[in-house]
Specification:
177 residues; alpha+beta; four-stranded antiparallel β-sheet; 5 helices; globular
Length: 177
């Protein structure tokens, strides 16, 4: 069986690992959203793509149920040690760049696709939330975690490793279509 269009795009975009997303693995968990509220990344209540602005757990679950397929996308970066901040930032930037390019290309064939990224939106240096509408609502996307998804579980249930070995960091996104 040949590769799907999203798989071809993922390879061209340079993702380290990619594969079909098990749609049954998309379980929106309140405890993941609670991690956002606890301030793990510091973006809760500060931007349109993060909770609570990105919708409730129930709203996100309903939104995801509208899609029949998805692709899981990973970028893995090697680190010199567990505190190799430079490698972490470089891996994150590479992943976000590849992801944004792939989302743009996916939208030419699947205009209603739902991209769920790794980490918070970084389109604007300063988000307008909550004082004004988002400047780029058609380009903005929430993270998998913001939607309540436990990323390691989604990877495992999709048959794609989450951990790629010692001194690596992996960034994970998906696109539903």
């Amino acid at each position: 069986m040949g590769r799907s269009y999203p798989q071809i795009l993922a390879e061209e975009a340079g993702f380290t690992t990619f594969g079909n997303l098990n749609m049954e693995a998309l379980i929106c968990r309140p405890e993941v959203r609670d991690m956002c509220a606890d301030g793990r990344c510091g973006r809760y209540g500060t931007c349109w793509s993060c909770p609570p602005a990105c919708g409730t757990i129930e709203e996100n679950a309903q939104m995801m149920k509208q899609y029949q397929r998805g692709i899981l996308l990973q970028t893995t970066a090697a680190m010199e040690d567990d505190f190799d901040y430079e490698a972490i930032k470089e891996g994150e930037q590479r992943h976000k760049k590849s992801f944004c390019e792939m989302v743009d290309r996916m939208r030419t064939v699947y205009p209603e696709c739902l991209p769920l990224g790794a980490g918070t939106c970084t389109i604007c240096a300063q988000c307008t939330y909550p004082d004004a509408p988002c400047r780029f609502p058609s380009r903005r996307f929430s993270s998998m975690e913001a939607c309540g998804l436990l990323v390691s579980d989604v990877c495992e249930k999709s048959g794609i490793p989450y951990n790629h070995g010692k001194q690596t960091i992996t960034f994970v996104s998906c696109i539903l279509y």
